[in-house]
Amino acid sequence: MKPFIIETHGLSYSFGKRQVLQNLELRVPQGAIFGFLGPNGAGKSTTIRILLGLLPVPKGQVRVHGHDLHNNRIEILRRTGSLIEMPTLYRHLSGHDNLEMHRRMVQAPKSRINEVLQIVGLTQDAYRKTKEYSLGMSQRLGIALALLADPELLILDEPTNGLDPSGIREVRELIIRLNREFGKTIFLSSHLLSEIEKCATELAIIDKGATLYQGSLPQLYQGAFQSSVLQLETSNDAIARKLLTDHQYELLPQQGDVLAVQVQDRQQVARLNRFLIVNGLEVYRLSTHTHNLEELFLNITKGEAEPAALQETILAGKV
């Protein structure tokens, strides 16, 4: 099992009388692309500010790189890079000069500038003034700034905010490359759920300052499969309906020209298919509704559904 690069233990935080985080539990495995999701006001920005040492945190509630953030803030930040929405750039300077100024602050070697420019694909545009950069190029330069000190952990908050589809793809591919080729752990907060779905290896969903789900996407989808509706078409739907009813399958009102059957798991789908074939029917269509991350996110945050393993995971203290 990989060690956790970020851990929070009963993390709570208030602004005056307003409780923002309530016993928040996070476990970010080293080497993951970790999607951090939640509706507006869920506590995401407060959590990120705490992880970056911008808000004080009680001793023992947050560990980063295996160290208590309360006592080791400077050492932790040396090993952590970040981009919070839009990078702060000196627009009258070139990309290279922006990197040079930041390099001096973090005391990185000069050779590192060319390295990060190549990583983010800005080598040919290094000496252009950043006021001439597109929004996507500016975002990639912001990631280059975060990479100068060669951090093990990157915290990215809405890195694709405002980008066109081409820019979104460039940043997504860069994030995946940083993880796979350079071994960076990436803590990624985004409202673009489709992007999280395409690149995250783990994710957490929070609301009202508390963890509602944490785990992998396959685990989330598997939990959502429970009690799914199977749609099927056969060579003789009337016979299929009678066979299924006689064998205690739960049929729903027919949806157009297809039969609708309540199923509990994938194994039941396979058994149903074999059953119809053995009884001489040809199965032309067999499909279940596939939930995407947006649907699952809305169900979880609105309290309409909960992944099957979630409550057990929370009770076992594994979130």
Strand-helix topology:
Blueprint: E1 4-15, E2 18-29, E3 33-37, H1 44-51, E4 62-64, E5 67-68, H2 73-78, E6 80-84, H3 95-106, H4 111-120, H5 135-147, E7 153-157, H6 165-180, E8 185-189, H7 193-199, E9 202-207, E10 210-215, H8 217-224, E11 228-234, H9 237-246, E12 250-255, E13 258-263, H10 266-278, E14 283-288, H11 293-301, H12 310-315
Parallel strand pairs: 3-8, 3-9, 6-7, 7-8
Antiparallel strand pairs: 1-2, 1-4, 4-5, 9-10, 11-13, 11-14, 12-13
Record keyword descriptors for this entry.
319 residues; alpha/beta; Rossmann fold; Alpha-Beta Plaits; 2 domains; 27% strand
Question: Please, could you describe this protein's structure?
Answer:
The protein is of the alpha/beta class and 319 residues long. The chain folds into 2 domains: 4-221, P-loop containing nucleotide triphosphate hydrolases (Rossmann fold), CATH 3.40.50; 226-288, 2-Layer Sandwich (Alpha-Beta Plaits), CATH 3.30.70. 37% of the residues lie in helices and 27% in strands. It has 12 helices and 14 strands. It has helices at 44-51, 73-78, 95-106, 111-120, 135-147, 165-180, 193-199, 217-224, 237-246, 266-278, 293-301, 310-315; strands at residues 4-15, 18-29, 33-37, 62-64, 67-68, 80-84, 153-157, 185-189, 202-207, 210-215, 228-234, 250-255, 258-263, 283-288. A 6-stranded mixed beta sheet has the order 6-7-8-3-9-10, with helices on both faces. The protein has a 4-stranded antiparallel beta sheet with strand order 2-1-4-5, with helices on one face. The protein has a 4-stranded antiparallel beta sheet with strand order 12-13-11-14, covered by helices on one side. β7, α6 (165-180) and β8 (185-189) form a beta-alpha-beta unit. α3 crosses α4 and α5 (135-147) runs parallel beside α6. It is elongated. GO terms for molecular function: ATP binding; ATP hydrolysis activity. It comes from Pontibacter flavimaris. Keywords: ATP-binding, Nucleotide-binding, Transport. Residues 6-233 form the ABC transporter domain. This is Bacitracin ABC transporter ATP-binding protein.
